[in-house]
Structure prediction request, 90 residues.
Amino acid sequence: MSDEFVKGLGILVVGLFGWMIVSGWYTTPGFEETQLIGEAPSTLGAYGTAALLLRETLFYFAIVGALVFWVVLPAGREARRAWEERRTGE
Prediction:
């Protein structure tokens, strides 16, 4: 059980840290303005567009990855154990 928690936490931390780095590079125009969630610049080249795609990918990887390890896998194990208990009649 703690193994899934640590894996989910690792995915969450790494994914959101990467999101924060890319957001700081591309969506923080200044310290006096909105930071990390500001509007992305409209004049980006291929690398800038790829970085913003990486930013979105890292965000969803962090959220979905943590939910998989914290909710889906433990629920699947519980469901499988309940199914086995029901089949064996215990």
About this structure: The chain has a mean pLDDT of 89. The chain has one domain: 2-88. The CA atoms of residues 37 and 69 lie 27 Å apart. Residues 46-88 form the longest helix (43 residues).
